[in-house]
C-alpha cells in the first residue's frame, strides 16, 4: 500500500496569498462565529430538506477537551461527509453514485459547558479512491474545530468501529502509532442513540498535547 501523501486533486495550484500580521488581518480574513450564527437545525443533517434522506441514521456525540482534560466550551464544530452512496454534494465529485436531493452532508454546532457536541446524520458510504485500483476509502466523517482563534483550526476524520476497509486506508495509517489510530475510531454507544431511530456513536477529541487527536497537515 503506497504511503499517503495527499490527493493531488486537493493540492493548491496557485501560490498562497500572504496576509499582513496583526489583529486587523485576522478580523477581516478569519471567520466570525457565535451562538447567534449557529441554528439548532444545523446539527441535524436529516432535517435540512423537505424530504427524508436515504441511509442509516446515526447520532454522533462526544467531548472536546484540551491536553489537561478540561472541556473546551463554545467550540465551533463543523462536520461534512458523503451520502449513503458514498458521494459528496459537491460539483467536483463526479463518481457514478447517486446524489440524494434531501441530503447536503454538512452541519455544525457549538459545544456546551461540558465541551460536548452532538450531530444527527446518515452513515456515509465508502467510495473508490481515484487513481488507485481496487482501493476504497472506509466510511468516515470529516470534522473541523476552530479553537479560540482561526489559526488554531484542527481538521481531522472520524471512522467507524469494525470497518474492514480501515486496514487498507493510507490516511488512517498516516495518523501514527496504533494508539493514535485508535483515537480516530468512534465507539458504538447505545445510550447515545434514539430508540427506533438512530444508532449512537461516541467520539472524543483532544485538541493538543501528547494524546492529541490526529490532524490533517496543512489545514
From TrEMBL:
This protein's UniProt keywords:
Dioxygenase, Oxidoreductase
Q: What domain of life?
A: Bacteria
Q: Name one GO biological process term.
A: 3,4-dihydroxybenzoate catabolic process
MF GO annotations: ferric iron binding; protocatechuate 3,4-dioxygenase activity
Q: Domain Intradiol ring-cleavage dioxygenases: where?
A: 60-88
Q: Which Pfam families does UniProt cross-reference here?
A: Dioxygenase_C
Q: Where is this region: Disordered?
A: 1-22
Name the family.
Belongs to the intradiol ring-cleavage dioxygenase family.
What protein name applies here? Protocatechuate 3,4-dioxygenase
Taxonomic classification, please? Bacteria, Bacillati, Actinomycetota, Actinomycetes, Kitasatosporales
Amino acid at each position: 500500500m503506497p504511503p499517503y501523501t495527499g490527493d493531488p486533486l486537493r493540492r493548491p495550484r496557485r501560490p498562497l496569498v500572504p496576509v499582513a500580521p496583526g489583529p486587523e488581518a485576522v478580523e477581516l480574513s478569519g471567520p466570525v462565529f457565535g451562538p447567534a450564527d449557529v441554528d439548532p437545525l444545523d446539527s441535524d443533517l436529516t432535517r435540512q430538506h423537505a424530504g427524508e434522506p436515504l441511509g442509516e441514521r446515526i447520532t454522533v456525540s462526544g467531548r472536546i477537551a484540551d491536553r489537561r482534560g478540561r472541556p473546551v466550551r463554545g467550540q465551533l464544530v463543523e462536520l461534512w461527509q458523503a451520502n449513503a452512496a458514498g458521494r459528496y454534494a459537491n460539483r467536483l465529485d463526479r463518481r457514478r453514485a447517486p446524489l440524494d436531493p434531501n441530503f447536503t452532508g454538512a452541519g455544525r454546532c457549538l459545544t456546551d459547558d461540558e465541551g460536548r457536541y452532538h450531530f444527527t446524520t446518515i452513515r456515509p458510504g465508502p467510495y473508490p479512491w481515484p487513481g488507485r485500483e481496487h482501493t476504497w476509502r472506509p466510511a468516515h466523517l470529516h470534522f473541523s474545530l476552530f479553537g479560540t482563534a482561526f489559526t488554531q483550526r484542527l481538521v481531522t476524520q472520524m471512522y467507524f468501529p469494525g470497518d474492514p476497509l480501515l486496514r487498507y486506508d493510507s490516511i488512517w495509517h498516516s495518523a501514527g502509532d496504533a494508539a493514535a489510530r485508535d483515537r480516530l475510531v468512534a465507539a458504538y454507544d447505545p445510550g447515545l442513540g434514539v430508540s427506533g431511530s438512530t444508532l449512537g456513536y461516541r467520539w472524543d477529541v483532544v485538541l493538543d498535547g501528547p494524546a492529541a487527536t490526529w490532524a490533517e497537515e496543512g489545514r
